[in-house]
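BUG: 3D viewer hangs when loading the predicted structure for this chain

Environment: internal workstation, default settings.
Expected: structure renders.
Actual: progress bar stalls at 90%.

Input used:
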Amino acid sequence: MAWQIWVAIAIALIIAEIFSLTFYLILFAVGALGAALAMALGLPLAFQVGVFVVISVNLAVFVQPILKRTLVLNHQGRPSNTGALIGREGYVVEEVTADRGLVRVNGEVWSARSLDGQILTAGAPVRVIQVEGAKLLVKDAK
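Structure tokens produced before the viewer hung:
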């Protein structure tokens, strides 16, 4: 097997990784490049396959979890941007009623409504209880 075949396998794995974003295929591509190097050095096929397996498995076991943790932007279990607002405190910018109003939370102004129907006046402290689309459901933070 010529070293170019290992390189072609690596390229195919990189292309597949672009479409799958599993963070596994790219590691096997690195293993294929290691096997290509072994072939270029004149090592036998069994050794090339061994290099491919050892590099790929070690990267999959030790590097893949780190890649996934650091490169995946929205982990399961981590609140989305709006979900992270739940429990945060802010204050009323424009009177909040059961239907409408404006609050400032984390320096941003959000549409809001009172969770319990209470009327909250401008300047009143509020706590975000729930998020419905782009509207925050708030209650008095006192």
